[in-house]
Write a structure and sequence with these properties.
31% strand, single chain, Hypothetical upf0131 protein ytfp, five-stranded mixed beta barrel, two-stranded antiparallel ribbon, 6 helices, 32% helix, alpha+beta
Length: 203
């Protein structure tokens, strides 16, 4: 029987991916999570430590199609993803050992309901030393990964895309504020915020 799901939602089993992640994480004495967008301003899990962190080899990009959280099937929105290349500044969070399993389950339900991300352990650099952290990355070949959009296409999405957690514009603005509060410069995010202001979408 042919599935009626959009192509970018026909993905690997997230439960199987979680089993594989747990197997790799068992060898680690501490469980860390790397936040680069909404996890900076809405982590929804309890961490016993957090640090500014730099991840090399990946960069933050507003190029992942969202048909649920920040858009709909009729008007898809966008969310950030980690794409290969460059570097990304964010934060790492250390989970409490006794609550790590429950926190991971909650995080997985939020980030991986369809399994579209590639969840991987990545080396993050912090002032207190390197840590291996869980990061949600996206392959450029994924059907959920869009090419760089022209400004008029981006503006259309920022004006109209809304999902169960709010608009793409709100998501962009919250991420921009969280990075600004941490003293992190992201020139593409700053450019998009300026674009939105110049077209009357933000005060």
């Amino acid at each position: 029987m042919t599935s009626s799901l959009p192509a970018d939602l026909i993905v690997r089993d997230p439960a199987e991916q979680l089993v594989n992640l747990r197997r790799r994480w068992q060898a680690e004495s501490q469980w860390w999570v790397f936040g680069y967008a909404s996890l900076l301003w809405r982590p929804e899990f309890e961490a016993i430590e957090h640090r500014p962190a730099l991840l090399r080899g990946w960069h933050r990009a507003l190029r992942m199609r969202s048909r649920v959280n920040r858009g709909t099937p009729e008007q898809p929105g966008l969310v950030f993803a980690l794409l290969p290349g460059g570097a990304c500044r964010g934060a790492v969070y250390r989970l409490h050992p006794e609550r790590a399993e429950a926190e991971l389950q909650r995080l997985w339900a939020r980030e991986m309901p369809t399994g579209v991300y590639d969840a991987r352990l990545v080396p993050c650099h912090t002032a207190a030393g390197p840590v291996l952290a869980l990061a949600f990355t996206l392959a450029r070949a994924s059907s959920a990964c869009l090419p760089r959009l022209a400004d008029n296409e981006m503006l259309h999405i920022l004006r109209h895309a809304r999902g169960r957690y709010g608009t793409t514009l709100e998501y962009l603005a919250e991420t921009a504020a969280a990075l600004r509060d941490r003293g992190v410069r992201d020139r593409e995010i700053e450019r998009l915020m300026d674009l939105a202001r110049r077209h009357g979408l933000l005060a």
